[in-house]
Batch of 2 targets.
Target 1
Amino acid sequence: MKYLTGIVALSVACDLDSCGLWQTPREEFTTNLDSYVRESESSILGTLGIEKDKIIPYNGNTLYNVANHARAYCDLVAEKRYKALDGLFFDAIQDTKTRMLIFEYIFKNRTKFKNYKEINRFMHSEFGNAWDSYVSSYSSIQKTKNAIAKKKEEIDNARRELYGTDGEDGQGIEGGDES
C-alpha cells in the first residue's frame, strides 16, 4: 500500500496524542509531496501505524494513507535521516504513549534492521535512559518468559513420564481412571 510518511506525515493529525509539526512549508504538501510517498510492502514495518483515508493540507478532499507520528518517526530512523530527527521527538511528538510505540516499533523489529547498532546508538543519544530502560525491561521480560516456557516444558515432560499423559489433569493417555 502506498502511504505518506516523514515530515509531511508528522504534519498531519493522527489518532495518537502527539502534537505533530505545524510549521511545515506548503511546498512540502504540494510540489514535494511525491518525495514522501513510500510502499508499505518494501518497509520493515509493513502496514504498522498507517492510517487510511486522511485529508492532508493543501490537497482538497483527496484521501491519502498516512503514517501516524510514531510510524513516520520510525520511517525516518529506518532511512537514517538522523539530522532531520535530531530533537524532532521533543518538537513534534512529546507524548509518552507515542514514545513507547516508537520504542516498540524499533526494538521489536531490530533483527530486520541491517543497521540496528547505528539505530541503537541514535535512540540512546535521542532518548537516553528512557530507551535504555525500555531495552533492558524488554530483554528482562523475554528472559523470564523463556525461563517460564522452559520450566513448563520440563514439568510437562515429567508429567508424561510419571503418568503417561499429555493432559494437565493427571489422567492417563486413555483419559480414564484404571480402577
Target 2
Amino acid sequence: MFQCPHRRCAGRRWSPAPSHDQKLRHTALAITYDGVVNISTQALLPKLRSYGALSLSALTLSALIIHPVPWCFDCEFPNAWGHVDGPADVVLSAWLLIAPFLAGLFGVRRGWIVPVCMVLAFLVTQPIGGVEWWSLRANEGPVIIMLGVPLTAASFGLGYLVRGIGILAKSIINRHPR
C-alpha cells in the first residue's frame, strides 16, 4: 500500500503499490502543481493588496452603471421610479456590503476608500436608474449617505476584525504546536 505524501493528493492510497516510474511521474506533477500555485499566489497577492481598493470600486461603479438600482426612501407605491426589482438587484445590493468586507478581510491598502466609493457609486448612479434630481437631493441622497456610510464602514470593520482574529489564531497555533 502506497500513500501519497503530497498536499494535492490528500494522502491518496494506491493498492497495489505503483511502480517507481509512476511514483516519479506523480511526484513531478504534484511538485509542478504546487509550484505553479505558490508562484501565482505570491505574485498576485501583493497586486491584490496594492490595487484592490481601486479594483473593487471600479467593478462596483461599472456594475451599477450597467444595471442601476434606483432606491426609493418613503415611497408610497410599488416599483419605485418604474423599476421592477429582480435577482440582479439583490446581488448588487449585497455586493455593496460584500466589497467593503473583502477589502477589510484581505487588508487592502487604502481599504477605507472602498466603503466611501460604494456609497458614492450608489449615489451617482441613481439618476441613471430613473431617480429624479429633486428627489435625490431632497430624499434619497441624504438617506443613502446617512445609512450607507455607517453600514459599509461597519462591513469594512467586520472584515478587518475577522482578518485580525485569523491572524491572532494563526500566531497562537504557530507558537503552540501540538
